Amino acid sequence: MEFEFYLSSAITLFATIRTITNTNPVHGLLYLIVSLIAVAMIFFIIGAPFVGALEIVVYAGTIMVLFMFVIMMLNLGKDVVKQEQQWTAPDLWLGPGLLSLALLLQLLYAISTGGFHTAAGITNIDVHQVSTTLYGAYLLCVELASLLLLAALVAAYHLGRTTENE
Amino acid sequence: MNTLTYANIFTIGIAMLKAIIILIATVAGAGLLSWIERRVLGWWQDRYGPNRVGPFGIFQFGADMIKLFFKEDWTPPFADVFIFWLAPVIGMSALLFTMAVVPITPEWGITDSQVGLLFFLAMAGVAVYAVLFAGWASNSKYALLGGLRSAAQTLSYEVFMGIALMGVVMLANSFSLYTIIEAQKDGWFIVPQFLGFCAFVVAGVAVAHRSPFDLPEAEQELAAGFHTEYAGIKWAMFFVGEYVGVILVSALTVILFFGGWQEPALLGYKLWPDFLPVYPFIWFALKTSIFIMLFILIRAALPRPRYDQIMDAGWKFFLPLSLANLLITAAVILLQQPVAGGA
Fold this sequence. Notes:
The complex is a heterodimer of chains A (166) and B (343). Chain A is an all-alpha fold. Chain A has helices at residues 2-21, 25-45, 49-74, 78-87, 94-112, 127-134, 139-160.
């Protein structure tokens, strides 16, 4: 299991870095999809197959398809690659790089001072546990999230309606 | 923890051998299906179909394969080469992976995943990229439009496909396909889940890009749609992938609504007398073949609808239908529970 974990983690890190550094939008998107699938693999390995499957269904299978859809509609050409190269000039990396470094140090500190899970401590979380928690302790959050989605739905309907008959 | 004894190695070897046999059988079945489909279509449409190569033309598939292997493997100079190559690989492998969770008989299946059904939905979602990437990487108008259509169509139909299957999940109380089959011991889910079945079959046809939902490759409007620029073995991978989709959706229909490998049973009554022998594989193969034939018959019988009609049908008819099915199923299950369920 440990080998698979490190392999998936390495793929995730590499794919994520390539997502950011790639100048071609579709290639970047492809790396992002690979990264998401690798994260789903990690979920499978640490004993959360339900979350892993949902990660692929929702992120890789739906949201990224919409991204791809938009990129195809925009009909991007070589100009975009040039523009992307200008926007990712080396001196622009400094600010975000420093901020990320601060976050990384924080993460390393948190990992080093406990909260460390060994492989033996991993239990398999099945669908029933996830759903009873969601619809028990976190019912209010689920309802709030659905309200948010309803608002998005109403907004999408408003933007997409035809005004011919009015 | 995991010591490799000879017994372990033997078990692993058997499991791998089974997986390889299932893989080869699926691909071979998909290839053979291309011949069966053309023969049956010819029969239904009162013409011959391929009947020259070998007895009844059964070697037609071999001849086609030889032709496709030796055809010039042309990559357009204006294409994005890497993604152009990647697309057919995704198209063929994504649905083939799903065969890993398909239970053929109690002993013959690669793995019993507790999220088997979700795995299918996930792989169906990934399979969209084959068409999308092919459409984008070809860098041609027809391919691009085909890819766009496919993305919109598949997304719309996957939404209610997932919802339609949740009724089955609620009845079986599990996402595992083995548990779902076991739950149909006393009655197939086709009866309580008839609406879900209708929605799933329609969505399955759409996800496999089969006629009448083959708008991404509508010849009259889009040349050959997303695979206009493809030739040779890369095109063959799309082609075989489509038939793998047909086999997979048929097998899943059987597993989810018709009891999988089990003998007929209806509403608690066994329709197959106990003294008759039971062959799980025969039942599974027979039921799956019926649905494969249904797929082909649909192609022979129905014309292709307009694109906006397909989207309308998906969002305005099938989505509410599956939601209603979900609500009714949940209500009936709650009413039938003997004890008032607490949290």
